[in-house]
Structures are given as C-alpha cells and as structure tokens.
Amino acid sequence: MLYELLVPLKAYIGAFNVFRYITFRTSYAIITGLLLSFLLGPVLIRLLKRYQIGESIRGDGPQNHLSKAGTPTMGGLLIIVAIAVPTLLWANLRNPYIWIGLLSLFGYGAIGFWDDYLKLRRKKGLSAKPKLLAQLLLALLITLLLAWMGRGWSEATVLSLPFFKTIMPTLGWLYLPVALLVIVGTSNAVNLTDGLDGLAIGPLIIAFATYMVLAYLAGHARFAAYLDLIHVRNAGELAVFCGAIVGGGLGFLWFNSYPAQLFMGNVGSLALGGTLGSVAVLTKHEVLLVLVGGLFVMEAGSVILQVASYKTRRKRIFKMAPLHHHFEVAGWQEPKVIVRFWIVSIILALLSLSTLKLR
Known about the structure:
single chain; mainly alpha; 15 helices; globular
C-alpha cells in the first residue's frame, strides 16, 4: 500500500526513493509488526479472559502443566493481524508471492481456528482425517500456483540441494508430494512443538529470519548467481513478509514468554508452520528447511519414533513425546528446556546460512 502511494512521489521528492528498497521496507515491517503486537496483545488477553477462552490441559501430560489451565489461548489471532497489517502496508502488493504467503497464513490459520473453536465448544477438536485433508488441499493449491505465476511447471519443480552447486534435479509431477510433505509436515511439526511457553515462537522467529535472508538472496539476480542459488524472480519481496512475521512473532513472545500470559493455539501454530513450509517452497529452499527447522523435525520425529516403537515392540524410546516433554520428565525445568531449544535453533540457522558458501 505504502509502496504504491509513496514510490511515485520520488519524481518530486528524492527521499521517497528509499521506499523502493526491500531492505528498508523489511526493517519497517518488523517494527510495525512488533508495535502492533504490543498494542493489541493486552486488548486480546482481556477479551479472551472475559469470554473464558482458556487452554485445557491434558491429564496425561507433565503434572506441572496443570496449573496452566485457563490461560488465554487462540493468541495466534494476534500474530496473524500483526503479520497481515505490516505486509499490506510495506510490501509491493502487485507481487504474487505476497498473496500466496498471505493465502497460506490465513488458510492454515482458518483450519487452526476451527480446530480451536471445536475444542472450546465440545472439548474435542477436528478429527485427524478432515484436518489433514484440508491441509493437503491448501498445500496443493499453493504448489500449483507456482506454475500459474509464469515460472512454468518444469522450472517450478526444480529441487535445490544444500552443499551441491550443480545437482538440481527437475522432479516434474514427483515434486507435488515433496511440496505437500514440506508444507503440511511443517505445519504439523510446529503444532507438536507448541507445548511450552515460548518454545515454538522462538524457533519460528529464528527460522523466518533465516528465510528472510534467503528470500532476498534468491530474488536478487546477482547474489543468486554469485552463490549458485536458483534465482526466483520477484521472490525478494517475501523478505518483507518474513520480516512482518519476525516482528509480529517478537511481539507475541512478549506475552508468551515464561510464565505465559497467552498461548497461540492451533490457529497460530498451524498458520505459522504452514506459512514457513510455503515460504520454503516459494524460495526454492525446500530441502534446506530440514536444517533451518531442524528443531521441528526432531520434535515430530520423536513422536513418530515413539509411536512406531510402542506399536512394534511395546517399548518407549522417550520418557514422553514430543521431545520437550522427555526432558521435562527427565528433570529439566521448563525455562531450561525452552532456552536450550532456542540455542539449538540458532545453531541450526547459522549452519543453514553457511551452506550458501559450502557448495
């Protein structure tokens, strides 16, 4: 919006030329998202308390979590607003990547909202099959939009592999299951990670900050050529979108840090997870997401291994799954688990960025 209004004014006042630059608009998208979260957070918390929209705690989880019952949930609504408004203000709205990013955010947010709503109303959320089907259909739509945007199916289905310069296979229709796995898998992995105060939003901020850099580099012809990346024309604008998520996420963390005043709920975790997977697909860094979002992979993997082991051997690998509960049961205090998982996320993000030169 501001891009359309202010960039033309550079013909009269040279200072308005600064609004052309993605880096400038990304910085202000971060600040805007942060300020919006600060302003709207207390209002949302009061509304949620007034209507008694609080978290219900499962009895089979760690016993120290029972005291969290009733904490306002569905705080993902705050994050979505704090992302959407800065994006609409600072991004170039003629760029189709921005609208696909927002489609993912609102689409997965709607699935999560309905799940949260059903939990509050009848103490049971969406059943697994319709929930997964909705996630898959939305991921399919996002993937097919890549070809519609003019890149062509063959170009859209090229797969970039970390550490390799020349190995970039074109998967054709086999790319569909890969993209669906990345988007839907990330959405559910983030949902599984969201079990402690600030545990999910911290690594999400780190992951989106990493993709903010990757989007800018992939969308810049010279940088992409220098680093041997797939050049995705116009994808640089996604840096503004990712910046809005970083800012909105930081603002939400203010209220979600231990002890949490507000939980994001499925409306937040599914929305942010699905959007992270979508951004990875849009920027052609799908495989790298395994490293960038390695913490989410470990959390989801711990659940898969736990279930598989119990069904086949009647033995559990972990004291409790997902992984963060294993460490809680082992005696780690909740803040220690959270901060140490954040440290792991930072290390993985730095390793991911290092692959840009280790090729």
